Structures are given as structure tokens and as C-alpha cells.
User: What shape does this take?
Amino acid sequence: MTDTEIRSEIARAFDEARTQNPLAPSITNTVTQDFVANAQLAVGGAAAMMYLPDECEDIAKLAPAFYVNMGTAMPFYAETLPRAAKACHELQKPWVLDPVGIGMSELRTKILLQLKDFKPTIIRGNASEIIALAKLWSLIDTDGGQVRGVESTEKVSAAKVSAVALAKFTGGAVAVSGEEDLITDGEEIVMCTGGSDFFTKITGSGCALGGVMAVYAAVASPLIAALTATTVFNLAGSKAVADAHGPASFKVHFLDNLYNLTATEVSEKFRAVESLFESMFNFGVVAFPHAD
Amino acid sequence: MTDTEIRSEIARAFDEARTQNPLAPSITNTVTQDFVANAQLAVGGAAAMMYLPDECEDIAKLAPAFYVNMGTAMPFYAETLPRAAKACHELQKPWVLDPVGIGMSELRTKILLQLKDFKPTIIRGNASEIIALAKLWSLIDTDGGQVRGVESTEKVSAAKVSAVALAKFTGGAVAVSGEEDLITDGEEIVMCTGGSDFFTKITGSGCALGGVMAVYAAVASPLIAALTATTVFNLAGSKAVADAHGPASFKVHFLDNLYNLTATEVSEKFRAVESLFESMFNFGVVAFPHAD
Amino acid sequence: MTDTEIRSEIARAFDEARTQNPLAPSITNTVTQDFVANAQLAVGGAAAMMYLPDECEDIAKLAPAFYVNMGTAMPFYAETLPRAAKACHELQKPWVLDPVGIGMSELRTKILLQLKDFKPTIIRGNASEIIALAKLWSLIDTDGGQVRGVESTEKVSAAKVSAVALAKFTGGAVAVSGEEDLITDGEEIVMCTGGSDFFTKITGSGCALGGVMAVYAAVASPLIAALTATTVFNLAGSKAVADAHGPASFKVHFLDNLYNLTATEVSEKFRAVESLFESMFNFGVVAFPHAD
Assistant: This one.
């Protein structure tokens, strides 16, 4: 895709979410459910959180997209997550996986090994999580390469090989969040910048981003859904800084800005760096502009 | 009751909640617990959320009112909800039921069928949920009438028959939330308008409304409790719009306004439409003013 | 310790938390997790909430401090809490206990009796909870003295004997929250004032305080950690009042202020009442200034 095509697709996804109000139900951690739901509503989607295996499976069958965030895993997740993911996979519904907490317990490992078969449409995580998942699913060489252990301080770039490997395996997209965001569908790699340091000073910005990716996945391809969510987050985040007096007012302004963004505004931001965009494109790395 | 009597009762309930600080414990969904609790505190009540069957039963026995919101049902709800509701019923304590998610799973259906025996003092839901509950409890003719299936887009008016049937069965009140709010005790039907579209752009306004109804149910009749909660929500919501730049700042201003309302302010709003109020009263339908 | 030493230690703990970003994972109630996590982040710490027994135990072993708040106990807490607390105790990691809900169920009583062996480094609660815990652990005479039953309206001063008894038993610190805050390590008793009435109008300020104590416990002694957390809460709370229009905007301003505090500002507040500080010190009771 050319940069113009990507920008056009992002604008379309942005508008479709506002028009269609897609429901993107979640199994997501209890800490940040409020933030996830309000972010999904702010971009035009609809939210529903639940825990029971049968109703997660049933709503996964009904809704156009689904979000699984493993944050605060509870005992019954052993049955709930695989059933919901299987339902999505069998019906070719897009679903987003945030493997937060990977490696913390045998239950998580067991669940994540099962989820491999149900190929998440989008995988979102920080660099360490993405590397850990690629290793767990035996998609990268665990004895060599750049990857040594899982560090939460791992830089986004360190997860490039893992992200591409995961995307090639699933046929979907992978988003690595950090100071810069790396998004790939296994072929193209797009780097997004922008946002705000305040994202690291509030809890749940990554969770909310995953939830919003699920909203866009209901109306766009995996790559475009991941790019659109990342772009609106970075843009709303950088705009929110102006009025923020600290992390709590940043969060309020961020959600307000997320709600008030326009498709035009998002597109214009991209036009500003067209040249950089195109020149880097030849190397398979596209730098999205800093949304100042 | 005349409109003057209703207004007087609402003012009394409003003040009593501030004076008595009634505890209205909740079994409520994990997504919106923070919002429910803060709304309960803002109107003068006290909040406590819990999950364990024995302590839900025990606190239901101690507290003057109780709130059950079925949002994010967990496996242990099968025991927790019936025990808490039974305790309320046996001790004639008011309790509020929000049957959100009705029909989503066998567990919910099983629990809701059990709850029928414990006649919730106030039932609050959207039109679809109220219709679904009336059907589940075999209180309306499922083969005929205006009701065909359960649509979340069902208009409030479509739930009128179901709401009245439920209220007649329980001997309490039923509140149907939507663009307008319909509140009935099975005899009178009161329509409330006002509020803000932002209520649909933030998660949990319905849950918070139910929690606040439980606070007022500790100090007023079911009908007056439902009316008072609906009125303060609509008034605080419409006032919050002025300073809101989006859904997140709306929520902050809404809770601040909820905290700062006065009984006089609430009463005055009603006086403004006295004539409409009385003329419609003859038809059993009372339109409360738009709290602009 | 002299007042100058205490002030110096508080400033050091304040700065160390910002520099080291200590992770203080929590098992904490679902109502206020967002508030707890955001407060921990605001003072420079890192947050993680979880429920599963094995991963709570594992992260307790890895992290420099841990927070246990019993608020919304769930069935699996029976295994989770003792395992996490035991891990902390065996590795001499500081952990903070908030025994909220003490006495509400057999499960809680059973868990709290087990936790006695793992001597929490800091215990934080309101007066009633502290008295109840001292009784449950047989540290005070339940038939005599000032203590008769557990009232949630109990004044902080009523919990003095219990707090000292608990601190002597654990070898750590105990913080009794209320209009004034009493903090003791079993030898010295320090009274802190300040804050805002709004703390009682929002849900979770006590929970967030406990979570922040855990952050400071990773970098300071139990007494200093409890004092530092209490002081920054009172100072940020009293500063937030100026711009608050109600409880919701108070909470936003409180977290913003918590984030923006400086070590100097905290120290200067103490200098202002040095004389009072020193004169009362002889009686073992130190009054910290009202952070107006």
C-alpha cells in the first residue's frame, strides 16, 4: 500500500467506527475496564465486558470483533479464553490479543499455547511481551538472535523479528507499543510516533489501545485497524498534553480529544510527512509523523 | 399522588439521603464499580461492593438497602445473588435489580428465575432488558402484543406494558431508562426527560443510576426512590453539559454537579411544568420537565 | 528520631521512589484498582494487580514490596493471600496489609488468622479495622480497656492501644486513617493532619494510600514509608481543594498534585511547625502540620 492508500484507509476506518458503532466485547483485566470501555465509546464503538465461558463464546459469535486482555487472569479464564477465541477463529471474526502477564503462571502459558491455534487477528503488547509470545509459540530461535530473555525494558526495535514472525504466522497484524510503535502485517513494517509520556504515567493506556484496535478491526483490515487505533491514540495524546496539569487531567483531556478527533485531522497529520513516508517505504519501514 | 406531593417527596428523599448517609451495598459489575460508588457517595449515601455469598447475605441483612447489578457475572454469582436477594426479601429490605445481560447465559437465566421469588423493590433497565425480564417471569404474553424479541434498540415506550406488569407483580417500582425514562409503580406511570446524550458516551451511567436508586430506596418508597434518582441524574447531567469538552470531562462535571445539587433546585425544576404535569396526570402519564 | 531526621528521611523516600520506580504489585479490591494504580504511578512507583495464587506468590518474590487489600474478597483469595504474604515474609520483603472488611465472613477471618504469622510490614486501616485486627490476633484485652466492639465510627485515638500492640507484634508500622492519621512503629506515635474532607466523598482514597505506602516501603523503613505516603496524600489533598468543584474534580486535581509534589515542598511544610513538633516529641506524640 502507498502512504496515500494507508491514509485513505485510516480515514475510512475512523469514519466507519463512528457510523457503525461496532460492538467489541472484551475479556479484559479488572484494573482498566473503565478506561477500555470509555476509549471504545469515544471512538464510536460499543463495549461489553464479561467472564463466563458460555456467554463469552456466545457474544464472540454475535459481535463483529472481540478483545482478549489477559491482565488480571482469574481461575475460570482457563475455559473462558480458549472458547471465546475458538469461536472467533471458526467464524473468522477478528479478535485482538493482549498477552500482558505472559510467563507469569502455568495457567497463562497453558492458555496462550491453546490460543496459538486460534490465530489472533491483531496481537498488541510491549516489546518484551511480543518477544515472549513469539518464543512461546516457537516462531523465533530462542537460542540465538537479538533476543535474550524477556525484559520489560526491551526496546520496540528489539521485537521487530518477533513481531514479523507472529504476523506471518497469524496472517494478521502485530503492534508493539513503546516510545515508538511498530506495526506490521508480516510484510510491511510501519513505525508510529507521537503520543505523550503521560501514557506511561496512567494505568491502562495499552489496554485501552487494544480495545480500540478491536473496534477498528470490526470495520477494517488488521493492519489498518492497528494503525488507526495507534494513530488516534498518539494524536489525542499529544493534543491532551497542552491542557494537562498532571496524569489525571491528561487522561480526561485524552478521552475528550479522542472523542472530538476528525478524520480530516488524522489525514492531514499524515500528509505532513509524505516524503519521509515514501522514502522510508522502500526499506519496508514507514515512519508516521510525530503528532505534535 | 399529586404533582405537588411527588415533588415534596422527592425533596424529602433527597435530603434524607444526605442526612442519613444510608449504606447501599452492591453486587455489581467490575467495569463500573468506581462510578457506582462515587455516584452513591455524591448523593450522600455510602458504598460497599462484595462477591462472597455469606458476606453479601450478611451485609444485606445489616444495610437499609441493597443493589444487584448482573453485569459481569462470575461463576460464584449462582450462590451469591439468590442468597443476598432472599435476605433482603425476608427482612423486607428494599433492593434494586439491574438485569443487564439478561438472556446471555444459562446461569443468568437460572439466577433471574430464582430472583423472581424475592421480588426486587426496584427494577431498572433499558427497554429490551425490561421486556426480556417480563417475558422470563411469564408476566406478559410472549406470542402477541407489541413485543417481538429483545432488541437493545427498543424504545422506552415499547416496554410500558412490561414495566407495569413487573411493578404490579413485585409491588415495587420499575424504571426504564432511555432517551426518556419511564417510571411506574404499576399504577402511575411517570415519564422523565432531561439528562444528556453524553450519558450514552460514558460507561456505567445506568449502573450508577441503579446504585443511587438503592441509596434513595433506603429512605423513600420505591416509586419516589426511582424518581428521585432519575431526576438528580437528569438534572446533574444536563448541568454538566455546559462545561463538558467531551465524555470524560462530562463525567467529572456530572459527579461534581450531582454532589452540589440542592433540594430546592430539584423542586423548582418541577414547579416550572406544573400545568403539563397536572394535565397529563389524568391519563396516568406524567411528563417531568426537561432539566435544561 | 528527631523531627529533622524524620523530615530528611521522608524527603529521601520521596525522591527514591521517583528515581527507582519500585514495583509494588497488589492483590486489591476491584472497585478501586484504577485509583490505586494511578496513585502508585503518580508517586513514581509501578503497579500490577493480580489474583492467581501462583503468580501472586511469584511476583511477591520478584518485586521489592507488595500490597494486600482485602476489599472485594473472592473465593480464590483463600489460597492467594496466604501464599503471597508467606513469600514476602520468608524473603523479608515489605508488604502492606489493609484488612478492610475484617469480620465480614469466615473466609476473611480464616485468612487474617493465617496472615498473622507473616507479620505485615505496614498495616493500614481505619480505627475500627485496626482495633478489630488487634482483637482477632489476641493482642489486646477484649474484655476491658477502651475497646468495646468494632464501630466504623470509632475515632482514630480509640485505636491507639491496638495500633501500638500490632506494631510491637509485627516489628513494623501501623497507620490508622481518619480525620487525623495516627502512625506508629510501636515506639513512637506520630499524628498527621491535613488532607481534605473530599477524601471521604470519593471511593478508594484509603486503598490508594495503602498502595502508595507499599511503593515507599520498597525504599524506606516501615515508619518512614507510612509517614511519607500519609504526608504526600495530605499535602496533595489539601492543595487539590483549591481547584475542586466537587469530589470528581477533587480526585483529578489530587492525582495531578500528587504527581507534581516536590521533596522540598514536603520538607518545608514540616519545618513550619518545628517547635510544636519538638515539644510534643517528649510525650511520644508528634503532630504533623495541617498541610493547608
About this structure: Residues 144-152, 271-292 of chain B have pLDDT under 50 and may be disordered.
